[in-house]
C-alpha cells in the first residue's frame, strides 16, 4: 500500500516525537493520540515502520558497501574531510557544511 505524502509527513513527525521517549508506554501514548487526531489507520503506521526498517537495512548495506566514512574534498581549497556515508546519503553535503566534520588524515 502506497502512503500519501501527507501521511508520510505526519508519520515523520511522530517518529521525531517518539525518539525521546524513555518507555514503551510513552511511545504507545503518543502513537495512539496521533492515530486518533490525524485519522490514521493503524495499518498505515505499521506499513510506514516496515518501510523505515527496510530503509535502515538498505542504509546498512550501502555503508557496508561504501564504508562508514568517505573522503570529501572541498573544491575551493582541496582540503579533505571525513564525512559519514550516512550523512551523504540522507541529507547530502554542501561545501560550506564540510567544516563541521573532522579533516581527513591519511
Structure report:
The protein is mainly α and 106 residues long. The chain folds into two domains: 5-66; 69-100, no CATH class. The protein is 57% helix and 9% strand. It contains four helices and two strands; from the N terminus they run αααββα. Strands 1-2 form a two-stranded antiparallel sheet. α1 runs antiparallel to α2. The chain is elongated, with a radius of gyration of 18 Å. It starts with a helix and ends in a 15-residue tail after the last helix. The mean pLDDT is 77.
Descriptive labels:
mainly alpha, two-stranded antiparallel ribbon, 106 residues, 2 domains
Please tally the helical runs, counting DSSP H or I stretches of 4 or more residues. Answer: 4
Proportion of residues in β-strands: 5-15%
Bulk shape: elongated
Any low-confidence stretches, pLDDT <50, length ≥5? none
Report helical residue fraction.
Answer: 55-70%
Cα end-to-end separation = 47 Å
The strands making up the biggest β-sheet line up spatially as 1-2
Outline of this structure?
The chain has helices at 5-18, 24-37, 42-66, 85-91, and strands at 69-73, 80-84.
Task: Describe the secondary-structure layout.
Blueprint: H1 5-18, H2 24-37, H3 42-66, E1 69-73, E2 80-84, H4 85-91
Antiparallel strand pairs: 1-2
Helix pairs in contact: 1-2
Amino acid at each position: 500500500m502506497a502512503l500519501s505524502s501527507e501521511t508520510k509527513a505526519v508519520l515523520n513527525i511522530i517518529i521525531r516525537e517518539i525518539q525521546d521517549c524513555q518507555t514503551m508506554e510513552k511511545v504507545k501514548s503518543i502513537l495512539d493520540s496521533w492515530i486518533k487526531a490525524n485519522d490514521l489507520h493503524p495499518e498505515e503506521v505499521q506499513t510506514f515502520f516496515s518501510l523505515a526498517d527496510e530503509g535502515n537495512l538498505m542504509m546498512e548495506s550501502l555503508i557496508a558497501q561504501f564504508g562508514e566514512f568517505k573522503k570529501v574534498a572541498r573544491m575551493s581549497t582541496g582540503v579533505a574531510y571525513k564525512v559519514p556515508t550516512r550523512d551523504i546519503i540522507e541529507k547530502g553535503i554542501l561545501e560550506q557544511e564540510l567544516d563541521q566534520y573532522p579533516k581527513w588524515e591519511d
